[in-house]
């Protein structure tokens, strides 16, 4: 996503996975995501999807290149290196970057025009990689540590490409505390349901350790990019701790303590909970609108963006 801080406001949501599923569409319940709240705080609109753009549609505020189920790694990585089933979506990070370049070529009058435009924008690269990590937990647990460097390298390569395109302000988010997610908690029972496997808040420690391992490697890569490109501001979004605090002190943020690890929408043919605002988990892999709102507040108002974002025009309610 690119937020333009100047007079010419723009968002380019390049690699974000929208938090929306079929059930949400059918029941007309809009499950918003963290970046929607961040955009609103800066007075910016929800982004149109690149693949559904119509001729003459206004793209001056930005475009969304993301696809549900997207991965950082492409099909070849999955087939030749990861030894697990290929992902459901073929719109990997590399494919989305190609679409961004197509958009650039059709939008900018010249290379100079593009660079001038991008210098006024904040690019958001992610969150991406979560589907890669979850796939290896559920299908090839032993290969998890081997795939992390590949995912980080893909994110780093995409970020570097954007810098070379003229981006001077970029956000790279980390991963969530996946050991607190309802879907992976259900999977965790297969690894033994011993008390010592869970932290004091009920999250599966091994899965969260994996997320922290990934985030540590990503932060190291970000710091290297900062050294290589000192004139570029690279902001790390700490999704892990922004979300983890909700599980640690749910009532402080308006959630029901007895429901923090339960999903509001458990899956097909299930009854949706009566009050989603009391839940952190929506359908297992995704969080509720209320949870994303709290995470967004932590990013915009601090302290989970490093370095901090510029002051927002509006408060997130």
From TrEMBL:
UniProt KW Hydrolase keyword: yes
Enzyme class per UniProt: hydrolase
Enzyme Commission no: 3.1.1.49
Pfam families: Lipase_GDSL
Keyword terms: Glycoprotein, Hydrolase
InterPro entries: GDSL (IPR001087), SGNH_hydro_sf (IPR036514)
One GO molecular-function entry: sinapine esterase activity
Gene3D superfamilies xrefs: SGNH hydrolase (3.40.50.1110)
Keyword Hydrolase carried by entry: yes
Family recorded in the similarity comment: Belongs to the 'GDSL' lipolytic enzyme family.
Protein name: Putative sinapine esterase
Species for this entry: Medicago truncatula
Biological classification of the source: Eukaryota, Viridiplantae, Streptophyta, Embryophyta, Tracheophyta
């Amino acid at each position: 996503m690119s937020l333009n801080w100047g007079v010419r406001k723009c968002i380019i949501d390049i690699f974000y996975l929208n938090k929306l599923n079929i059930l949400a569409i059918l029941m007309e319940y809009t499950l918003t995501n963290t970046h929607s709240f961040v955009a609103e705080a800066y007075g910016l609109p929800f982004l149109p999807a690149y693949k559904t753009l119509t001729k003459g549609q206004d793209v001056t505020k930005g475009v969304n290149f993301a696809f549900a189920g997207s991965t950082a790694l492409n099909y070849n990585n999955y087939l030749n290196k990861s030894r697990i089933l290929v992902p459901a979506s073929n719109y990997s990070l590399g494919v989305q970057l190609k679409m961004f370049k197509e958009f650039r070529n059709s939008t900018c009058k010249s290379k100079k025009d593009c660079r001038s435009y991008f210098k006024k924008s904040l690019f958001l690269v992610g969150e991406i990689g979560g589907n890669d990590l979850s796939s290896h937990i559920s299908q090839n647990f032993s290969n998890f540590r081997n795939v992390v460097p590949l995912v980080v390298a893909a994110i780093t390569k995409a970020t570097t490409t954007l810098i070379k395109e003229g981006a001077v302000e970029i956000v790279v988010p980390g991963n969530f505390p996946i050991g607190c997610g309802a879907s992976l908690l259900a999977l965790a029972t297969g690894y033994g349901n011993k008390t010592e496997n869970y932290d004091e808040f009920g999250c599966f420690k091994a899965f969260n350790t994996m997320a922290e391992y990934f985030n540590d490697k990503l932060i190291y890569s970000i710091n290297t990019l900062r050294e290589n490109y000192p004139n570029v501001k690279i902001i790390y979004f700490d999704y892990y701790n922004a979300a983890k605090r909700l599980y640690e002190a749910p009532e402080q943020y308006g959630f029901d303590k007895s429901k923090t690890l339960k999903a509001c929408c458990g899956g097909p043919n299930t009854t949706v909970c009566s009050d989603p605002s009391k839940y952190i988990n929506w359908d297992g892999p995704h969080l509720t609108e209320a949870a994303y709102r709290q995470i967004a507040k932590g990013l915009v108002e601090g302290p989970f963006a490093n370095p901090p974002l510029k002051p927002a025009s509006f408060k997130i309610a």
